[in-house]
Amino acid sequence: MEEEEGEGEEYLFKVVIIGDSAVGKSNLLSRYARNEFNLHSKATIGVEFQTQSMDIDGKEVKAQIWDTAGQERFRAVTSAYYRGAFGTLLVYDISRRSSFDSIARWLDELNTHSDTTIMRMLVGNKCDLETLREVSIEEGKALAEAEGLFFIETSALDSTNVKTAFEIVIKEIYNNVSRKVL
Ligand code: GDP
């Protein structure tokens, strides 16, 4: 009997998380990968990644998700961090306008270090902090539309949309480009 095409194939995609310090990058990743949240997390310096698997069309799709682990504080996110990435989450904090204003700089950096086919998702994190909101959903959407980004608001604290955000990125990458793992 003929083997069905694509059966047993595995895929591995690198995804990078970028954005200003303290927007919640590490917590988004720990919420997604381990369902953990840290109120007073102190990032260890040095790049860290977690590998997560999901099933798409009966295939195992793995995402190697990288966190800057505090390096952005020293403007030390290097080209190596971006190398080979198929997708990125550009994160800001909805309760801190300066982190939203920084997205333009992160986009510049992304354009310098990666090609235009990289899947880009704008993430407005900390949407649980509604009373402290400084950036409206409309502003987030408008920026995403202008720059051709996907857009979602999340909360690593109460889990809102965290899984969805990562899964949209991974599915979208899978649908567009794929790299076969040997
Ligand atoms: P990073 O520097 O971007 O990796 O940010 P962290 O993940 O270390 O988070 C910075 C601070 O924001 C920590 O005190 C977290 O507890 C807090 N934080 C992260 N995500 C959320 C969220 O969704 N809601 C709230 N209220 N706080 C968050």
UniProtKB/TrEMBL annotation:
Subcellular location: Endomembrane system
Domain of life from the UniProt record: Eukaryota
Protein's membrane topology: Lipid-anchor
GO terms, molecular function: GTP binding; GTPase activity
Keyword entries, A-Z: GTP-binding, Lipoprotein, Membrane, Nucleotide-binding, Prenylation
Listed GO CC annotations: endomembrane system
Family listed: Belongs to the small GTPase superfamily. Rab family.
Protein's recorded name: Uncharacterized protein
Species for this entry: Zingiber officinale
